[in-house]
Amino acid sequence: MRARLRSVFNSSGFRYLITGGLGFLAELVTIWIARDVFRASSIIAVGISFWVGMLASFLMQKLFTFRNTQKTAIALTRQSISFAVLVVINYTFTLGFVALMDPVWSSPELSRAIALLITTVWNYLAYKYIIFRR
Questions:
Q1: Predicted confidence (pLDDT) at residue 70 exceeds the cutoff of 80
Q2: How far apart are CA 23 and CA 60, in angstroms?
């Protein structure tokens, strides 16, 4: 039983979900601050939160989830370019989805949560097989 539990906790999939949850929490806090403190629109608030979440997520995914310690210029360049492409895809999808859903329900948190669920699958695959491959 202990060995099985240890293998679950040591799996990249489990660590991916943990870091994703922490990144999502950072995004929600950022949305609430942007909207409630700075009176930003839903689109602006989600846009800002996206960048906060992506930066936090990238660092946690690289160092914790996939335990990637590659520091050579070639590896970091490849990871940065791959990550940048993924960011553009995720950012465009996220803002488009929030804009599409804003008239349906006026909850950017819900829209972002659904967009995040959708992107979670393709992000994991991209991180594991492209960005942080060994």
A1: yes
A2: 9
